[in-house]
Amino acid sequence: MSVAEAGLAMRRGTLTSRALVAAHLDRIATRDDRIGAFVFIDAEAALAAADAADAALASGIDHGPLHGIPVAIKDLFDVAGWPVRHGSVCFANRMAEADAPAVARLRAAGAVLIGLVATYELAIVGPGEDGLYPQPRNPWNPDHITGGSSSGAAAAIAAGMVRLALGSDTGGSVRSPAAYCGTVGLKPTNGAIPKSGALPLAPTFDTPGAMARTAAEAGLLHAVLSDTSPTALQDGRLDGVRILCARNWAQAPDADPAALDLMDAAASVLSLAGATVITGDLPPLDLMTDAGAILIHAEGLATHAERLKGDGRPMGRMPYQSMAAGAVLTDEDIANARRAAAVFKAQIDALLVDCDALLTPTTLTTAPRFSEFANGQARWTPMCTLPFNMTGHPALSVPMGFVRGLPMGLQIIGPHDGEAMILRIGSAFEQASDHGAFDAFTLPQSNPARVNRIKEMT
After folding, report:
1. What is the CB neighbour count within 10 angstroms for residue 236?
2. Closest Cα partner for 297 from 385, 191, 188, 170?
3. CA–CA gap between residue 385 and residue 362 (Å, rounded)
């Protein structure tokens, strides 16, 4: 059931939160041994919270759309009494003392916190082999990564173990795993959600984000996390909406040719839904990414300077190498990157004056194989996400199709505080396509036409 369907059933008295949570726990028990998304489950607390949600509804107290709904939490956000360890042996014995504000908002909304899902170590890079726990496997093909650093959240959703998860995004850590796993990830406008109570990396880039099965569900989760009203996603029509399709990014040298094909197909779908789709160029992807990477390395070094002293142990090799790279940057390098970031932000703002949203692929390839990261070697995977952490614009990734059996994502970028528009576009695209209509463990056998379509695409 969708979140809305489960909520309606609870309010009609045909479903209890306890039954819903128990079903989630059973699903995790039968599937997660093949995926490894969850690193901590608090079944007793989850069932107790479910009982409290049921009792509240019975007494006429309704906290809203997430009342009684299970939510997973990235192992980066503090949950009181839980072993939040940021995926690192640096924090192997850590217990969180209080809820992060984002977590507290979930509790206040009646959500049931079911457990912690994996992160790349310190939410930096991966998939490392020397972190606190093994990294999750991609539910579509276990030989492939999930992307990071919100790796466990995307894997858990893609495997049908939970529909909602709290993630975080510094350079694409909500959107790239969503794209690699065929789920939805929303990086909001920088500053829209409080980020205290989560381990920082690059403070001017870091933001909590909603990860979900659908755009509508991401909107419900985002509304709670940002303390705003839920977005009305209307009827799937986009009449009057103008979208710029940035084909130049999909034609980058390291892009799979399928990225452009799928994005063009998505643009056609959006056009049929009523949108006016125009083509145009964004500033060069490589320059925007380079500027953002310089700033992340500089801020990451400052954030973790104490942990980098000596040889960096017990920090894993990948995060150590990544943050140590900041040590070679000069003040001039950083100043130049900041000036470039300001220019890029102004250019994106200017484009969004004449259109409501921008369209790019989320990543330029499908999920790489684990073997490409052997021996602890960090590797940059080609993505289109980092520029919008640097400029602060909200960006949504929704599934846009399959390439050789693995999903790819469509990224929709809006103006600052434009989450409502990009969620509306993402939802309309979902309604006009079926790329995210099922999880990696269950194909819709009741609809042979859809199954055959998926087989053709793969």
Report:
1. 14
2. 170
3. 6
Mean pLDDT of the chain: 92
Respond yes or no: is residue 173 known to be catalytic. yes
Element (H, E) at 71: strand 70-74
DSSP per-residue codes, 356-421: SEEEEESBSSSPPBGGGGGGG------BS-HHHHHH---EEEEEEEEETTEEEEEEEE-STT-HHH
- Catalytic choice (168, 173, 226, 427): 173
Of the candidates 210, 192, 236, the residue with the CA atom closest to the CA atom of residue 69: 210
pLDDT digits (tens, 9 = 90+) for 227-240: 999 877 778 999 99
- pLDDT category, 457, cuts 50, 70, 90? very low
Q: Is 424 inside a domain boundary?
A: yes
173-200: average pLDDT = 97
Q: What CATH number does the domain containing 449 carry? A: 3.90.1300.10
Does the pLDDT of residue 104 top 90, yes or no?
yes
Catalytic, out of 149, 150, 151, 397? 149
**Listed range (11-25, 183-197, 208-222, 435-449) with the worst mean pLDDT:** 435-449
Catalytic residue among 74, 187, 195, 345: 74
User: Does residue 297 sit within a domain?
Assistant: no
| Residue 181 near residue 158 (C-beta atoms within 8 A) | yes
> Predicted confidence band at 397 (pLDDT cuts at 50, 70, 90)?
very high
Q: How far apart are CA 52 and CA 48, in angstroms?
A: 6
pLDDT of 305 above 90: no
* Residue 176 counted as domain residue: yes
22, part of any domain? yes
Residue 88, domain extent: 3-283+343-457
Reply yes or no on whether 168 is catalytic. no
Question: DSSP letter at 231?
Answer: P
Instruction: Note whether 179 and 259 are within 8 A (CB).
Output: no
Q: Is residue 346 within a helix (H) or strand (E), and if so which, with residue range?
A: helix 331-354
**Structural domains in the chain (count):** 1
Question: Among 437, 409, 354, which Cα is nearest to 174's?
Answer: 409
| 176 is a catalytic site residue | no
pTM above 0.70, yes or no: yes
